[in-house]
Design brief:
There is one protein chain. This protein is of the alpha/beta class. The chain folds into four domains: about 100 residues, 2-Layer Sandwich (Alpha-Beta Plaits), CATH 3.30.70.80; about 375 residues, Rossmann fold; about 140 residues, Glucose Oxidase, domain 1; about 100 residues, Sandwich (Immunoglobulin-like), CATH 2.60.40.2310. A seven-stranded parallel β-sheet has the order 7-12-6-15-17-18-30, sandwiched between helices. Strands 21-20-28-23-24-25-27 form a seven-stranded mixed β-sheet, with helices on both faces. Strand 10 and strand 11 form a beta hairpin. The longest helix is centred in the C-terminal third of the chain and has 18 residues. It is globular, with a radius of gyration of 27 Å. Bound molecules: 2-acetamido-2-deoxy-beta-D-glucopyranose (NAG) (5 copies). The site of one 2-acetamido-2-deoxy-beta-D-glucopyranose has 4 residues, from loops.
């Protein structure tokens, strides 16, 4: 989480005025969502803007001006954001023409600084065999902006900017029109507005905008999705190789809706509205709300924007969050969003610990040590060097203020990790701050997730190595150790595996759609960044690195956006749902040693962890069959979820046909939406079996016959009917039914499995999750 003083500023401010009981009347920023756009109904932009102001005046007694409105939305959907009092917000939300009103809250970037890593290979996995894709694909990145000087945005070899492009390259004092080119074809920014009021007057405090990235997150995600090939990219020599985006021929447009403090809802919506209007094909968003306080679809800016993007044929790919490994943490779970979890790659960052007795222990970390800092030092356990009056359980964990500087100065300190609320980054700062010469962290669970300690000697070991170290310290007169510099090991196995931090399903809002959808590389991803001259992370004598290793579902998301771009470039007319289905049904469920995918604990990964599996973009070019999900299907979803018909009608507007919701709309029917995976929230052991319907469209050879095979856990009976489908010139689309019987299944448990249709050449897998209750 990017949290800084600015992020807390408005909160503190409101707490202060709450104390003076004037919260009711002091305006705050809100988003007013009014459903689909009416532009294609002959409305013009100026008219709509004045109608927003009129609407606002009709319910407000305050003096209003054009400035009272922060953003107007009119291209893909309609509405606006403005400073409203609670009473005004509530008056607006009860109007027939308003779908929802929600506070303009802050969303977070899906990476954290404690997850800065090193790696190179992931993008090589998505190596293009097609040097001249037939069509230009434009990827819109909604993030922290871009560092246009990075070689990843070189436009060498790219043709003219597609004529359909309607976007722009916004100029500021630090960003020139010439910073855009045929690779980076657009760059917009949005002033991040903060509600501010002195009790009598409200104001939008606008943080100075620029398309330029100062955080690095947006530059990293943009170059991962569509960066050019860059030779010899590395993170200070580590993981050297070719850096390239998933789709090096893709064009990139960046939309800066986030700063270091976070991303504002109203700016994200404006960015999505603009991106759709500008003509992007795919939108990549590595941002989300908290997994603890999930809001429903119509109060979630990303879900709203993504719905209308889908309605206009634009695919939206989002990160699922970094709140794993606990279940029910995945976010961005609307069925029209492609939700991405993170996986490891086949590369390890080893930093070996050599004890004074010569024993070598395997450790994991990213550090750039030289001959001076990688030296032998005395080694002590935090539990034995506690500061005065500090409980030993705190110094064992290397809590701030828990270590006695006199006892640790000049030594390597061993810390355990029994309290996960204290991050590795904080522990390292504590140990470094008291003058230690190095740190060994004992925590096996996070070893697959190497910590970037920069210039500080740091390594992380598992519990058995930890016991060995403590035993050595306890039985040796002058215990000592050396932490060796990071050594990159390639082709490690098993890989991929689900990242420890990757948010897990089932979805909180509904369990009848399986989420996350897919996993993609998100650990130690090498990509472009903002070169920063931070003395603590730049090795002596080196220039600041333009490439860095980062981890998070933030890094996984643009891998999927880039893969979707590859497919779109080959199959221009495939809809977002066909591309999504192709990527899901061809995803792999096995690792590089031919065994089932695992999670970071070594257990077989379930669809709640891995979705349909790890992306396999080249298989997805020839999926055979696809599950097409239409905008009408998504409107039915909104009916089944329980939204009122009049709101759904406003959302559909004239773009999508909608008359009314089916008579008996219940949440159970969501399982029947034509989704590429199946999820059933409740299958009663004693009750009736449940049948769901799916429809597949043939995208392979016209005359093909597919046969279904089922993989299901013992006791769960799964019947597919028909279990053979013959496609022909007259049969391009066919439906089948799946019946689940739980009588003999393991009760009070999720039963996971899959249905695979095969014609001998294509394998079309649909994973399922059925919650059997006794
Ligand atoms: C509040 O701010 C406005 C504009 O900045 C100013 O005119 C007004 O005097 C301020 N009121 C108080 C109570 O400080
Ligand atoms: C990349 O590195 C290799 C050897 O490390 C060198 O021979 C080559 O010239 C470099 N290429 C570029 C483009 O810098
Ligand atoms: C190694 O690192 C130390 C501490 O960061 C520094 O003082 C020293 O100059 C470095 N030596 C070399 C050879 O880079
Ligand atoms: C350490 O132990 C004390 C006393 O048993 C307890 O109050 C405290 O919460 C513990 N702290 C940690 C970090 O476990
Ligand atoms: C498909 O089968 C039909 C007969 O069912 C035949 O007429 C047609 O030529 C076949 N098409 C292809 C591409 O094989």
């Amino acid at each position: 989480m990017f949290v800084s003083s600015l992020f807390y500023l408005p909160l503190t401010f409101f707490l202060l005025i709450a104390a003076s009981a004037s919260l009711e009347t002091s305006p705050k920023a809100y988003v007013v969502y009014m459903g689909g756009s009416s532009i294609d109904e002959g409305e013009d932009v100026e008219n709509m803007e004045s109608s927003h102001l009129q609407l606002l005046s009709s319910i407000s007694s305050r003096k209003l001006s054009r400035e009272s409105i922060l953003h107007h939305y009119h291209h893909a959907f309609s509405g606006f954001s403005a400073f409203l009092t609670e009473n005004e917000a509530s008056a607006l939300s009860s109007r027939e023409d308003v779908v929802s009103v929600f506070p303009d809250s802050f969303l977070h970037l899906h990476t954290t600084r404690s997850w800065d890593f090193l790696e190179v290979g992931s993008s090589e996995r998505i190596r293009s065999r097609y040097h001249h894709p037939r069509n230009d694909v434009i990827i819109g990145i909604i993030d922290t902006g871009v560092w246009p000087e990075s070689p990843s945005f070189d436009d060498e070899g790219l043709g003219e900017i597609p004529a359909r492009w309607k976007g722009t390259c916004m100029e500021t004092s630090d960003f020139k029109r010439s910073n855009c080119n045929r690779k980076l074809i657009g760059a917009r920014y949005y002033d991040v507005s903060i509600s501010s009021s002195n009790g009598t007057e409200e104001r939008a405090v606008k943080l100075r905008g620029t398309p330029r990235d100062s955080v690095g997150h947006g530059t990293h995600t943009a170059s991962t999705a569509g960066g050019a090939r860059v030779q010899n990219a590395s993170y200070y020599g580590l993981a050297e190789g070719v850096a390239r985006g998933g789709s090096p021929s893709a064009r990139i447009a960046t939309y800066k809706a986030c700063s270091e403090e976070g991303c504002s809802s109203s700016a994200i919506l404006k960015a999505m509205d603009d991106a759709i209007k500008d003509g992007v094909d795919i939108i990549s968003i590595s941002i989300g709300t908290s997994s603890l306080f999930q809001v429903d679809y119509l109060n979630d800016p990303i879900a709203i924007g993504a719905f209308h993007a889908e309605q206009m044929g634009v695919m939206v790919v989002c990160s699922g969050g970094n709140d794993g490994p606990e279940p029910s943490t995945v976010i961005n779970t609307a069925p029209w969003i492609f939700t991405v979890g993170a996986s490891s790659i086949d590369r390890e960052f080893q930093s070996t610990l050599v004890l004074g007795n010569g024993k070598k222990l395997r450790g994991s970390a990213i550090n750039f040590l030289n001959g001076t800092s990688s030296r032998e030092y005395p080694i002590v356990f935090g539990g034995e060097v506690a500061a005065k009056y500090v409980p030993v359980n705190e110094s064992r964990n290397c809590y701030p203020g828990s270590l006695d500087p006199k006892k640790v100065s000049g030594k390597i300190v061993v810390c355990i990790n029994s309290d996960p609320t204290l991050t590795r980054r904080v522990k390292k700062l504590v140990v470094e701050g008291v003058g230690a010469k190095g740190m060994v962290l004992v925590d096996g669970t996070l070893m697959g997730n190497p910590f970037d300690a920069g210039l500080f000697p740091f390594t992380q070991v598992d519990d058995s190595a930890g016991s060995e170290i403590l035993k050595y310290i306890g039985t040796t007169k002058n215990p000592s150790a050396v932490i060796l510099p990071t050594h990159v090991v390639s082709n490690s196995s098993p890989a991929p595996s689900v990242a420890y931090f990757s948010s897990r399903g089932p979805g909180v809002l509904t369990e009848n759609i399986l989420k996350p959808d897919i996993i993609a590389p998100g650990i130690a991803i090498l990509a472009a960044t903002v070169p920063t001259n931070d003395a603590s992370s730049v090795p002596k004598g080196k220039k600041p690195s333009g490439y860095i290793l980062k981890s998070g579902t933030s890094m996984a998301c643009p891998h999927v956006a880039g893969s979707a771009a590859i497919i779109r470039s080959m199959h221009q007319w495939w809809s977002p749902s066909v591309i999504k289905s192709a990527l899901m049904t061809t995803a792999t469920l096995s690792s590089n040693v031919g065994k089932p995918l695992t999670d970071s604990f070594g257990q077989t990964a379930s669809p709640h962890e891995a979705g349909s599996g790890e992306i396999s973009p080249y298989k997805a070019l020839h999926p055979g069959l696809a599950y097409e999900t239409t905008t009408e299907d998504y409107l039915l979803f909104l009916c089944y979820y329980g939204y009122p018909e009049n709101k759904i009608r406003a959302i559909a507007r004239t773009k999508t046909k909608f008359t009314s919701c089916p008579k008996h709309s219940t949440g159970d029917l969501i399982s029947n939406i034509n989704y590429p995976s199946i999820s059933i929230q409740t299958l009663s052991k004693r009750g009736a079996p449940i049948t769901v319907k799916r429809t597949v469209t043939n995208f392979g050879p016209i005359n093909s016959t597919y046969i279904a095979a089922v993989e299901s856990p013992r006791g769960l009976v799964v019947e597919v009917s028909p279990h053979e489908i013959a496609f022909s010139p007259t049969v391009r689309r066919a439906s089948y039914r799946v019946t689940f019987r739980g009588t003999k299944a393991a009760g009070d448990n999720y039963n996971f499995g899959s249905i695979t249709w095969s014609d001998g050449r294509h394998s079309v897998r649909t994973v399922f999750s059925v919650n059997v209750v006794a």
